[in-house]
Please model this.
Amino acid sequence: MNETNKIHKLRVKNTTRSGAFLEWEPGNDLFLPIREQTTDLKNGDVCLVGLYVNEDTDELCATMYLYDLLSTESPYKKNDVAQGTVYNINRDLGVFVAVDDIYHGLVLNKELYGNFAIGDKIEVRIKSVREDGKLELSLRKQAHNEIESDAQKIMELLKQRDGKLSINDKSAPEEIKAELNISKAAFKRAAGRLLKEGAIKITDDGIELTWKN
Model:
């Protein structure tokens, strides 16, 4: 398989049992074989693809398997923020992201919150740049920004619930995630900050607004 080095964002024009046809050039569609698809596609979808020459037909085709096509020469450094597209999901490892639709990126499972699908656009923080140039990513902001964001989330939910939430530092991680979609550790940091500021009080049943502000 002779692959090109460019990544393209193309719209699905038509789908068949054998694959999908993508809008490519006027009067010339690009074929994306079913075996080269990483998710189900329908007409109108926009997908990220690489190109290769089919060895049997000598025709240019598309593939959604981008791992070997993405660049490891990004301009990013630790804690930079970037945009990316989810291009593959490994349930045991994490979510693979094409940063800027060009560069290698991976969000490990321990950094994931919420559900993702192939094709999703996400904002990521560069957690580290590996020696091979691939980017380890996080959905979390830097610690001080994350605490501020989580604290704001707690305050907004408290105001929606008449000043009371039935979760505190003794609650199960699952309960906290169901309410706020953050980890228990993140909740404790944010609640601790609000407690120190006098914005909330902790009770046996949960947390409450102090109504001081």
Notes: The domain at 143-209 is CATH 1.10.10.10 (Arc Repressor Mutant, subunit A). DSSP finds three helices and 13 strands in the chain. The chain has three domains: 2-63, 81-138, 143-209.
